[in-house]
Fold this protein.
Amino acid sequence: MLRPLLAAAVVLSLAGGSAQAARCGGDFNTFVATMAQEAQAAGVSASVTSAALSGVTPDPAVLAFDRRQRYTFNKTFEQYVSTRVGPGRINGGRALLQRHAALLSRVEQKFGVPRYILVAIWGLESDFGKGDIGKMPVVRTLATLAHDCRRTDLFQGELLAALKIVQRGDLPLRDLVGAFAGEIGQTQFLPSSYIKYGVDFDGDGHVDLRHSIPDVLASTANLLHVSGFKMGQPYSEGTPNFEAMREWNRAVVYRKTIGYFADRLMGQ
């Protein structure tokens, strides 16, 4: 699956080379040592970089998955939605709408994004946090992808952002685990999105997108709000809200599935 901002960032990374891109390939340990120096120059402590990067090795499974990713959305909308939105997931989403009604009201009031869209994304990305949100060490995953020369600028930036999540104290290193492109948490944020849009909505001083439902829903709403999503406006294909959801996922079939799921949650 193309995760939040991943596809857009890919376009930017392919727009031109940089000093970072020139360092891809070659000896992996040398590459990692250079990234540690860059992280420290960006304000990450030596203790964090050492703990995160010492002994890290490339993961061949990550590269294999990355090369298969482009085939994920080679389905029609009807084929795709039939595998993602069924009666069980709809009923589960409706139950959570009731359970978290007060929280969702506060999120709606602050960010202007309807609860049905948020719960639909939550359900699609991780089955409302009950599904697989990834168990792979994010630092190893991103170091592997950054060392690979296909999209090195993108993933070097994501690796630095992941280290900043630890530096900020949002997640301890042992809890910095995710999916095959380094996505983290119940709505699968890339680290750069975690840093940019993450919201501490439960007030504990940390942005925890793995365990805190208030943080998960508020951060998801914040991303859409910043991208221009407007409460009370339609979100079908061709609308401004549909375009705003492009910042979440560029695939048309995925955005249509979000809208379809939201409509089912409303009983439409």
Observations:
- The radius of gyration is 19 Å.
- The beta strands are 136-137, 177-178.
- The chain has two domains: 18-57+134-184, 69-133+197-266.
- Residues 152-168 form the longest helix (17 residues).
